[in-house]
Amino acid sequence: MQKNIAIIGAGPTTLYFLCELLDKNVFPQSVVIFEKHAEPGKGTPFRNENASPNLLSNLKENEIPKLNVSFSAWLHEIYSENKVPTTLKTFLSRADYSEGSANKVIPRGVLGEYLSFCFNRAIQSLKQTGLDVTVKLHSEVKSIVLDNQQFTVDTNKERCSGFDRVVVNMGGDLCAKDKLDDALWAYPPKQYTHEDASEFNIDGMSLTAIDAALSIARTKGKFYDTASGLEYRSKHDFQVVMRSRSGVFPKVWYNSDAVADYKKILNADCAIDVSNVESFFRHKLLPLFKQSMPKIYHQIKNMSFAESLTFLNQRNGQSHPILKLKAELLSLADESRQSDWPAVIAAGIDYIQQSPLLLKDFLTQHQDIKSQLSASFASIPLESANRIIALYDSKVLTFEQTEDAKLEEDDNAEGIKINAKGIIECEDKLAKLKGLLTFSGKTYEREAFINGDEWSVTENHELLINGKSTQLYVGSAFVTPWYINIPGLGTCADFGKQIAHHCVQTDAYEEAVGE
To answer: Are 242 and 401 in contact (CB under 8 A)?
Structure first.
């Protein structure tokens, strides 16, 4: 296909985009990938500076969408211990596939190395097909100009022209962030893990906040396995305070393998048609709870969807965060699947996402429950939960519930403030993308689009302005207005494949018409 494509961002979404091109065996004329950082394939969560020291993902091997080499093959055959970072060496030495390790999640650093390997392999494979593909690292995109159906990409280094299509696969850089005064971002942890600091105030109790607390703890002491359980010891006198509106953590790891089972049940149940989210919850999700988790069903059967999420997440301010963690750790041993209720919710949201009528109702009537959904899907790795409990037991960690979830001014000048609230969505998800794009020429008038005409993203991920095609594709779930779920590797795979598939389909159609 005689098309030149620019891709902004070299993270997992771009990796899956490239793998899809290889799978379909149809290629554009050229691909140029612009990446601000030095580690292609990894994306924001898995870069070395954000993954250290020894932070965990919440993914097991079978939860990684298929790539050009399996994780198991890469782990045991391709890399040897003398070729890999310390984090990976440790993981390799402990790696086993016994029943007891079924719930083990992969360290972020290890996952990042794997994604980077797959990315480089994909680039090599594309070059072997004859595709002109270039990866430009340390290239921060400053603007994208569309002039008479041709794109120009301006970076901090150069200007590149002649692109027929642009795929924007930046995630974190396009997310709205509400930064506190005098507070540091949670990533990279090396910003604040200082030996001489004695007080750390963390705004948030999400997975990001847990990463921050455990990074500090690792710098100042060690965790030990003892006869009575995990213990934390340190020679340093320091305190970590975590604060949030809810005052509790997200749920401990749950068996996401069950999501596919619940999806099948929902998709097979065609007996009842529902027209809005509340009726979907009443007539589709509740019967699923009744069938699979009767104990939970009897507790939530008279609640609304929002009320049931608040109850299930235990975010009503009545639970102590450590008691909640301990109860969830115990519930994982319950063979009745009572601890897997987030899998039902995840299957339900996927169903809503696939139904235009339900999706429209959700986006107009139920935006206020997104924080509850985030809490439902975010899962704390077992190891991280046990370490948080050990920090609390050692009296290093304390909690505060605040109304506005903002850190108050601290009289201690040496105290370090950390903003770990995670992604904060703005009302206009495409706001930062609008600032990145410039339109000129006869087809587009720049001022008209900057000043508030309708921007939308199709199901094929193409950006439309006032209903007009732009040939620019949005691969970031964080800025895609119609997307509900929290983005993860599965989302990266779906978006990357869908965008690649649509590009190939469109090109094939254009070629057929031309012939």
So the answer is: no
Q: What is the pLDDT of residue 141?
A: 93
308, 306, 286: which is closest to 297 by C-alpha?
286
- pLDDT for 514 equals 46
Sign of CA dihedral 97, 340, 386, 246: positive
The answer to whether 16 touches 497, Cβ cutoff 8 Å, is yes
What SS3 string covers 42-55?
Answer: CHHHHCHHHHCCCC
Q: Report the candidate in 187, 199, 282, 295 with the shortest Cα–Cα distance to residue 242.
A: 199
| Residue 243 β-bridge partners | 203, 400
Residues shown for the chain: 515
265 within 8 A of 288, measured Cβ to Cβ: yes
Structure tokens at 97: 């596939």
Q: Is the preceding omega at residue 487 within 30 degrees of 0, hence cis?
A: no
Q: How confident is the model at residue 427 (pLDDT cuts 50, 70, 90)?
A: confident
3-state SS record for 18-38: HHHHHHHCCCCCEEEEECCCC
3-state secondary structure 134-168: EEECCCCEEEEEEECCEEEEEECCCEEEEECEEEE
What angle is formed at CA 193 by the lines to CA 187 and CA 196, rounded to 5 degrees?
Answer: 155
Residue listed under structure tokens 């790795």: 381
In contact, 178 and 421? CB cutoff 8 Å:
yes
- Render pLDDT for 103-147 as a digit per residue (tens, 0 to 9): 678 889 889 999 999 999 999 999 999 999 999 999 999 999 988
Q: Which two tokens stand for residue 223?
A: 């965790």
∠ CA 167-173-179, rounded to 5°: 160
Per-residue H/E/C for 298-332: HHHCCCCHHHHHHHHHCCCCCCCHHHHHHHHHHHC
Output the CA–CA distances (angstroms, integers) from residue 496 to 125, 131, 190, 231, 458, in the order listed: 17, 18, 31, 43, 14
Residues 214-268: tens digit of each pLDDT = 999 999 999 999 998 899 999 999 999 999 888 888 888 887 888 999 999 998 8
pLDDT digits (tens, 9 = 90+) for 328-382: 888 776 665 667 889 999 999 999 999 999 999 999 999 888 888 888 888 888 8
Q: What is the pTM of this model?
A: 0.89
